Amino acid sequence: MSEKTALLTASTKISLWPNLKTRNRQQELMDDPQLDEALHQRALEGLSRVNRVSRTHRLLWQPIEKYCRQNRITSISVLDLGCGSGDLLIWLKTKARSKGIELKITGCDLSPVALEAARQRADRERLDSNFLQMDVLSEALPANQDIIVSSLFLHHLQESDVVKLLQRMAETARHLIVTQDLLRSRWGYLLCLAGTQLISRSPIVHVDGPLSVAGAFTLAEIQQLAEQAGLAHCQINRHWPERFVFTWQRSP
């Protein structure tokens, strides 16, 4: 570990047994715009590896596939908010294509480092894509989107911003919203603490993983925020490994 990395990670203390009764939201290292680019890229690779091993992309694919099958759709647009390095969107596009469904994908993120990684990933896979740098809380979301998704994004936000974002997603999505995130629980914290150490070599991931769980929501909390956003008829289900999936479909 370099001196720079050691100093960075040492500045954030990770508890082995934190109080998880209430949400404890702290700024994650990857959210720092001054984070060293090499460390950021390594962390993005580590997160992508964690996603592959935990197979959480499938949690978002299942409701998308169900909607397309029920409505006999073979081409549909998908917008990913907080897309990071684009691994989710590109996996979804590849998976959908194998099922005879063409996804027109757009990803939004605030980080230019993450967006460049996403563009490079799409180029390697020779996939058409559109990645935009924007603040999804303050700027107008891209129009004409059939489905809006997000993954591991809501726990970064204040409660009021979660309500605001859900409202904006519902206003913009023509058909469906699907989002998945961590659940705040003792089991989830221990899984994350051990899993990030085993799966990733990124010291940023080792710190940010447990911080993410401590700042995440419980099922009751996310249900309450959905109701505040006017989306009371959404579905929120618990999934392995200590995740929730939120789905909302526009009424016909």
From TrEMBL:
Domain Methyltransferase: 78-172
Pfam families membership: Methyltransf_25
Keyword Hydrolase attached: no
CDD domains assigned: AdoMet_MTases
Any GO BP: methylation
Record-linked Gene3D superfamilies: Vaccinia Virus protein VP39
Residue spans crossing the bilayer: none
GO function terms (MF aspect): methyltransferase activity
Keywords attached to this entry: Methyltransferase, S-adenosyl-L-methionine, Transferase
UniProt-recorded name of the protein: Methyltransferase domain-containing protein
